[in-house]
Structure of Metal-dependent hydrolase, endonuclease/exonuclease/phosphatase family:
Amino acid sequence: MQLKVATYNIHACVGTDGRFEPDRVARVLQEIDADIIALQEVEHHDVDGCDLLDYLAAKTGLTPIAGPTLQRETRHYGNAILTKLPILKVNRVDLTLPGREPRGALDVTFAGNGRRVQVVATHLGLRPWERRQQVRRLLKLFEIGLDDIYVLMGDLNEWFLWGRPLRWLHAHFKRTPQPATFPGRRPFMALDRLWVHPRRRLARLEVHATGLARVASDHLPLKAIIEI
């Protein structure tokens, strides 16, 4: 069995042309056709009478899992997952540090072809000291077993290729390719990342760089094929 996963910072559905168009993001999600997709910068908007996340779920036929990090009276904002797989457990993790923008992660366990698939989807802070503390906390979520699949993915905001967070992640999961995903039109920074354990299960990792994806958000989606 092959499992397709992806991570995508949708920039609240505001494209590189400055226009708010949720339908473009929905069509990119349809292009990717992932079994599990992590979303960042999901902001509450009323779209055709429903919340933005519910709108994207309806357009793709996927089950939504919300992980807001900012709770506002009218607009929530944060992480989300859309999935085709049966959900076994959902754990919403607070990664917020004092004086900084609220951050978090969705730690979700799925059933996949007789195996447990643990996915941690996140969006880390802008300061290096934030990311160091957040990555330490994320790594504690994984209890590596022999028969399970583990995935960490999201917008790590880590542009220091020599930084400690990436060294720790590569040591934990083993090194993976790091294609550029930002900015969407002409990407040169690998802000969006994806790791799989066991590493041998990662069959393919690539950027989804269609013409539509280049305009729908300021990030390009990163997608992978995992052998189960």
Notes: The chain has a mean pLDDT of 92. The radius of gyration is 16 Å. The helical segments are 22-32, 52-60, 128-139, 164-173, 211-216. The chain has one domain: 2-227.
